[in-house]
């Protein structure tokens, strides 16, 4: 017998797919002749169509942000702690839209999709996409849904970059922008981590130049290594120490290079194994490149304040003290630029030991601050 869903859950949800037949020009110079976006919605759109909120996902995220896909599903969407009745993004007030970005591997058009020009999967031939491309495709989805203006565009990490880009590309279509654990551009160190992860995939013998689907294989080892490298950067030293310390998985040391002896080794291998079974290697390459390329101030001679000159939204920035991937200093850069541009901005720095992944975790102070801002949004 199915277990009842929690009272504060959006409950059973069904993904929908929107087909776009109009070509989409991309920043790389290529275009998609047509594409599909898969998305989910939670809550009800009001008569004035003024209560819509867009959720933008991070690197490995997707459209399933809240609720459950079937009655026996025990694992809710990736941001279920923040979306639902009585939660910060309250579905009694807001109509929430969450989608899987172009280039993804969870239902939207991406490398695993069939290229209509060849009748075979795009694979390595799928064009490089940028944050700006994603926002343009999201704007088309908003048009289909009849949403002229978002009450808020919200995202963490790479999702926060999309939220910021919305205020630049479509200033009149965003009333509030909430960017969490994000940055105005990647540091050299972050680009370096992404490149190490990409090289792990590219150098896997099973990668086959990106056309591994045609070979009936996946570059599992490369994906595992990429995820392991990435996962280390999402956690803080404190959180890893608290979870694992130097605890041994076995009773004694084996004095070799192949045994899994420490608990942290076991954890990373598990994360890599699980990820390699559900995520596409070409999508991973695309997502990390989109991160690397994000630098909206480049078009304004590096002046971030000028970049936001035309923005009409009110902004809320949140960061976490132990996030060394996108440190509080990076959010503060955005805050200072917005102040210089004379924009309305709120900022909350949360003391949390979990590192970059803290934005996915129901930390009480974080949820209170998040809810406090969302409660002030008029619909």
UniProtKB/TrEMBL annotation:
Site (Important for acyl-CoA specificity): 325
GO molecular function: homoserine O-acetyltransferase activity; homoserine O-succinyltransferase activity
GO BP annotations listed: homoserine metabolic process; methionine biosynthetic process
SUPFAM superfamilies recorded: alpha/beta-Hydrolases
Keyword Acyltransferase: yes
Pathway it works in: Amino-acid biosynthesis; L-methionine biosynthesis via de novo pathway; O-succinyl-L-homoserine from L-homoserine: step 1/1
PANTHER family from the UniProt entry: HOMOSERINE O-ACETYLTRANSFERASE (PTHR32268:SF11)
Protein name: Homoserine O-succinyltransferase
